[in-house]
Amino acid sequence: MEAGEDYAALMRAAQEGDQDSYRRLLELVQPLVTRYVRRRVRSDDATEDIAQDVLLTMHRVRHTYDSSRPFEPWFYSIVRSRMIDYLRREKRIGTFELKTETLPEVGDDQRAPDWERFLEVLETLPPAQREAFSLLKLEGLSTAEAAERVGVTVSALKVRAHRAYNAIKQAFVAEGE
């Protein structure tokens, strides 16, 4: 986030009804959302849609921000959640714009990953577990980086991730029986 700006202070003022602070906060975070999403989703239309969804969600849930905690983990959890929701709605891996040459061939003895089902299972996880899984496996952060971003200890993040892994595994094992 931009140096010199106290996003938490702006959000606290916004929660107290200061519309100028809220307007300033939205002006500051809008380009951050756009950059963050554009690096992960190549479509300009999708980037714009997700960015707008993030700002609307942020507006709708601004009362949930705990002013005693850092602003950035709260903010980026909204961004990630809206991106995952968008990708889930698309229900196809083509949204990621992967080159087909880089995908492994699936033979008769291999099962193709069921991305649609995976996204459904991911969405059923409790928010803290989904966030831990997303940070570690989708964004590729280290446990220390993810814990810092979320504002929890490394141990707490590992517990959340472990529970997410088990829930995902159980969902697919149950279907295979």
How does this structure look, described?
With 177 residues, this protein is mainly α. It has 2 domains: 7-71, no CATH class; 110-177, Winged helix-like DNA-binding domain superfamily/Winged helix DNA-binding domain (Arc Repressor Mutant, subunit A), CATH 1.10.10.10. Helices cover 67% and strands 0% of the residues. The chain has 8 helices and no strands. The protein has helices at residues 7-15, 19-38, 44-60, 71-90, 115-124, 127-138, 143-150, 154-176. α2 runs antiparallel to α3 (44-60), α4 (71-90) packs antiparallel against α5 (115-124) and α6 (127-138) packs across α8.
Helix share bin? 55-70%
Q: Which residues sit in consecutive blocks of at least 5 with pLDDT less than 50?
A: 92-112
Overall body shape: globular
What is the CATH architecture annotation of the largest domain? Answer: Orthogonal Bundle
CATH topology of the largest domain: Arc Repressor Mutant, subunit A
Order of helices and strands: HHHHHHHH
CATH class wording of the largest domain:
Mainly Alpha
CATH superfamily of the largest domain: Winged helix-like DNA-binding domain superfamily/Winged helix DNA-binding domain
Count of structural domains: 2
Radius of gyration: 18 Å
Spatial gap, N to C terminus: 47 Å
Kindly state the mean pLDDT as a whole number? 79
Question: Which structural class do the helices and strands define?
Answer: mainly alpha
Count, helices: 8
Strand content: under 5%
